[in-house]
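Recall that a protein's primary structure is simply its ordered list of amino acids. Everything else, from secondary elements to tertiary packing, is in principle encoded there. The following example makes that idea concrete.
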Amino acid sequence: MAATTDEQIERVRELVASVPAGRVATYGDIAEAAGLSSPRTVGWIMRTDAADLPWHRVIGASGRPAPHLQHRQLAKLELEGVPIRGDRVDLARARHRF
């Protein structure tokens, strides 16, 4: 697997920063928009270089946050008006399109 470039990292950061309040994007949405081959690359970038970004607006394809972030992430999203059903985001209504 090829190393992730600084340009790819910056592109992912730009895309995450562009997701407006009240909307979400999936790791896959961001990977596709950035021209990356895997959503896992977006996850790695988010894990290592996203403290200053609206990280809570990036979610898995199921609409369900990671278990260790679930309460915190859903609370932040709910404050922004993101539609939530049970323990997941309603992606049909909340998904941001790049």
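The chain has a mean pLDDT of 95. The chain has five helices and four strands.
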